[in-house]
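Onboarding guide, step 5: your first structure request.
Type a short instruction followed by the sequence, for example:

Predict the 3D structure of this protein.
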Amino acid sequence: MAWLFVNFVILRQLQPVGTDSSLLFELISAFATVGLSLNFTSELTDAAKLLLILNMFIGRVGLLTVASTLIPAFQRKPLQHPSEDILLV
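The system replies with C-alpha cells like these:
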C-alpha cells in the first residue's frame, strides 16, 4: 500500500491533468498487471508512462523480490548447503 501511495503521489506530480480516480485506476491496473485501462494512458506524459512501466515490472516480479536484489552482496548471508554422510550397505 505504501508503494502504491508513493507512486500515486509521484504520478500526480508528473501528470497534473486528469482526475485522481483515473490515475489511481491506471496505477493499480499496471501494478496488478491485469491489462485494464480507461484509455487514459495515451494522454499521459512520457515520465508518467515510464512510472507505469516500472510498476508493471515490479508488480509482475514482486516487490519483495526486487527489494531483495537491491541489497548489497556483502550484507547477505553466505549460502550453506546441507551435508550428510550417507551409509551404503
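Each response can be followed by summary notes, for example: The mean pLDDT is 89.
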